[in-house]
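Throughout our pipeline, every protein is held as a single compact record rather than as scattered files. This encoding replaces a full spatial description with a residue-level series of whole-number codes. The remainder of this section carries one protein's record, kept here as part of the documentation.
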Amino acid sequence: MSIEIKSGTLSDFFTSAKETARQIDRGETITPKHTVWMDTHDLMQLLKPERTALVKYLRQEKRVAFAELLTAMNRTPVSLNNDLNILAKYNLVKIFKETNPGHGMRKMVESGFGNETLEFRVCL
């Protein structure tokens, strides 16, 4: 199974949904689709080298503390937060806080795609 990330408009999404509905009406077997539709601008932002490196890192680590991620990626907190917010917008990462025993709370980042294949498509 893979996650397909498509760039398109709301109209493109509804066209795809209507085609699936037609297949159901015809009694065809439908395979589950794991498609994320996003704005073309966001897709182009997502494909920046820093963000793709972040996705690759999270694929290996699965779950990591924000502070560790800063060090591993050699990034500033502001730039890393910007990248994580774009990835979180499309559920590619999960950001949450957890107790850090004896030290209060810490920000954690977790992969939202697990071992799934990510396929990027731009439909213009």
About this structure: The chain has a mean pLDDT of 79. The domain at 2-122 is CATH 1.10.10.10 (Arc Repressor Mutant, subunit A).
